[in-house]
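ARCHIVE CARD
SHELF: 3
SLOT: left
DATA:
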Amino acid sequence: MTASRVNNSRRRAGLGLATLALGLVLPGCAPLLVGGAAVTSAVVITDRRTSGAQLEDQGIELRASGRVRDELGSRVRVNVTSYNRRVLLTGEVPNERDKALVAEIVGKVDNVTEVINELAIVNSPSLRERAADTVITGRIKASIIDVKELPVNAFKIVTERNTVYLMGRVTQREANQATQIARTTQGVQRVVRIMEIITEEELGRLQFPPAENTTTK
């Protein structure tokens, strides 16, 4: 592939991320398609978790969210993000008791190995603030795409109130690169690393098929 075609491909990917960011905050937007194929299929192929682990993480997120909603209703806003059975809790709760209760509920979900409780005791953010968080996530992903040796699908990125949480199975080199990108992204106030560090040798043994950098959720 020529350099111009590579650059065009990266620009299209960046445009797709911008479209995704808007789609997450604007109602009625269709699912993002890249090159005529849904992004999801590319994510499954290039994700460094096994397909079983990916499905298990999705199940953890669904079960945990459902149990929190059943127990606490609308008085809390909790986002559950699972990566390799490690669960990140972000969002807002009214008091310390509810913060601890949410962590307890999620910790009892089958297959959860760790709960990282980043819930804030503040009022829920406005639509504008939530949209700003979505834009920050999109900017970081677009910047990672621009780094040829840094696969965006190796990371799961969550932004809450201008704080960026980085999750994934990555080498120390990749973790440092992604952290630097996040720290220098416009609007970011804080970066929290929740990454599983693997060696370069372990990375080599994963033996993923070659693929262009595409986006994950």
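SLOT: right
DATA:
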Amino acid sequence: MNFKVDQELCIGCGACETTCPEVFELVEDKSQVKLNPVPEELQASALDAEAGCPVSAISHS
């Protein structure tokens, strides 16, 4: 499973990094995916981060 962050939508709130720091990190006030593809053991946490994004900037495929 691959995740991406829409840089135009991201407001840099850090919710994703708090929820799943193994996959997401803030760089220059925008979230970045630091691990693709996301290993199976981290997918549930990454999906939680996606669901918790207040501006729906995170997606997966």
